[in-house]
# Entry
Amino acid sequence: MIGQEARDVERKITAILQILSDSRSPMGSRNISRLLAEKGIRLGERAVRYHLKIMDERGMTRSAGHKDGRTITGPGLEELRNSLVTDKIGFINTKIERLAYQTTAGLRSGTGVAPIDISFFRKEDYSRTLRTMLPVFEAGLCSSGKVAVATEGGKLGDVVVATSQVALATLSSVAVNGCLLKSGIPAQARFSGLLQIREGQPLRFVDLIKFSGSTMDPSDIFLNGRMTDVTGASVNGEGKVLASYHEIPTLSTGKARELLHKMQNSGLISFATLGKPGERLYEVPFNPEKVGLVIMSGLNPAAAAAESGIDVSSQAMCGMMEVARLKPVKELI
# Structure
């Protein structure tokens, strides 16, 4: 029993560390308690402060110097990476399903919210970063050609931009899942991978990681491993880009194709390829009862910037934002 109680405490500490890791600004016990409740963990403000005291003593968090706001430390990030790894299996799939369910974006109204990916870079690199990213958008190698930008102190969804930083929000590929679900079509996210581009056209997946078997977002693995060649794909038509593979029921193929066409015509998405029943899509084996759907990642522009030597950090699927705030990227130039 004591062992179970200790494990429950560690789970709560891990959940708090995850919240602090996801935040770009200090978090107090009230906000942490609210976000824990959204994860199904009922922990009052007083209990949160108790757990934060334990974490301070372990060196995993530190006070931000005002009220009870905390930030995560290096040891805290290391603990988050190592803790309760078996509990994290399936975490990414659960996150995708949650964000898809929360999507309310309307194709015609241009209102509602959708999940976003965010890339952060230094303020002095702003112009250079946009010039590097623009060919990626022009080649249609991003989930959407619409973006939102915020400078230090500004917000994109619930994310606050740090000092001397600029943040660029792109539509997450999960937004497509959300729009399909809203129309009664369940889409299951299966893989994230590297899609080979040859002569300007997608050819095949050369690397795949299952969402269900990963304890971290697979795109982070590909980005941190410098495994992309988004610049080559967008400029020369030869390279490897980030993309995700999803499946929908075969019976919904016609309706899904019509919906994806509307999403592309509205400018909400740039690239999404729906397969045919009983056929492979970019060399991924097919499921007889399912049809494959491939969507470009919203982090491909960030990958191109990193390839050019720009200091960029990214967060995939990091929250929801009003789609009305997303504007064509050319309006930023």
